[in-house]
């Protein structure tokens, strides 16, 4: 197979999220955010989706790992220096909304929160690392969930617009690359993270999910408008979760199911944000849930805003592929990324049951580029695994190197296919708290952080074997993957 040389300006780096690594959850005026009330453990999502979940903190009953993260808030200079040592060209991170507007509806931003990001961005630029900022990454001020009911409430459009205007205005001269919402389409499976919706406040009513999406689409378009008015050259993208989806067999029934699954799970949110209008299959999709488009609260002005301010590029996460099989045959199932499904007999799985499919990344890149003809940015990809420090405080993570090598090779093949790929930022470039399970033991990083699932440890940072491997990948611009 032909592998194209990576472009000279290819953005190699890594990715994190504020709520999963910063810690300092009530420091310097920060308000509570949604992840601050999510308990640790594999039952995290089941607990949150109980009808009586009240978004409160019960430290007698649960541990809350996002309160500590990896204490990046106090270690960011050390962490950025390690990223620079690896040779990062960019670093994708997010701004914690509740650091800037502690309640979300505050009249004025919290200057102490802004000063933290002043310092973080300055530290990146000191090493010629391009910041890539996600404006909202799986968090929102808890007050917006409890008082307003999350993104199903149209008032959040104005609160987000104010937040986006604040950070874009403050940082547009230093930061060229932005994304409006992390994995916006993930609400099809777990709306708590991106929309602030659980069973207790309306997640089981699909009308709320689609209304929340519409409100987020409008908010995203407003952010694009603000950014482009500040500087027409700013690159403001959407960000979606993408799982390449196969039919289990050639049965046309499964082929149709795969088409429908792709529309709902992979394309719907991007279709609106990239093309600027709702796709032709929208009514068919809504009808699946006994809804019509007219059931949603929208205005002509909002639809015009979507049309005038589409995103500049598509950021996406890719961890695994999935299989559609609807003929009710008895198949072995598999879990992954909070989405279950039929096991693909041709693929191996990670420690957490995620199906490892580098060829699926090449397919994803081709599918997305064929559909949208906009630059693509792989802003999450990686292997969560049980890493163990040896006696020398070293992790021999050959399994991670193998995973990343195969996926980088797939990117090279997609480049040879003619796909425009901007960059690659593996997820959790430094170990952090898992979003789905609240575990530290599910580690992705090139850098090991000595803290366990109960928040115990020295918080010291140690380079894994993959650290030096990725360093040579970047130094060779993807040519040396050995």
Look at the structure and give the CATH class. Alpha Beta
* Strand arrangement, major sheet: 1-2-3-4-5-7-13-14
- Measured by DSSP, the beta-strand proportion falls in 5-15%
- Give the low-confidence spans: none
In angstroms, what is the radius of gyration?
A: 21 Å
Q: What is the averaged pLDDT score?
A: 96
What is the CATH T-level topology? TIM Barrel
Query: What is the assigned CATH homologous superfamily?
Result: Glycosidases
Query: Globular, elongated, flat, extended or rod-shaped: what is the shape?
Result: globular
Largest sheet features: 8 strands, parallel, barrel
Instruction: Write down how many β-strands occur, each being a DSSP E stretch of 2 or more residues.
Output: 16
Distance between the termini: 17 Å
Number of helices: 15
- Give the second-level CATH assignment, the architecture: Alpha-Beta Barrel
Coarse structural class = alpha/beta
Helix content: 25-40%
Number of domains: 1
How are the SSEs ordered, and which strands pair?
Elements: E1 11-15, H1 18-21, H2 44-48, H3 72-86, E2 90-94, H4 97-100, H5 111-126, E3 130-136, H6 142-146, H7 155-171, E4 177-181, H8 191-195, H9 206-230, E5 235-241, E6 245-247, H10 252-275, H11 282-287, H12 300-308, E7 314-317, E8 322-324, E9 333-334, E10 341-342, E11 348-349, E12 355-356, H13 358-372, E13 376-380, H14 398-416, E14 421-424, E15 447-449, E16 461-463, H15 465-475
Parallel strand pairs: 1-2, 1-14, 2-3, 3-4, 4-5, 5-7, 6-8, 7-13, 13-14
Antiparallel strand pairs: 9-10, 11-12, 15-16
Helix pairs in contact: 3-5, 7-9, 9-12, 13-14
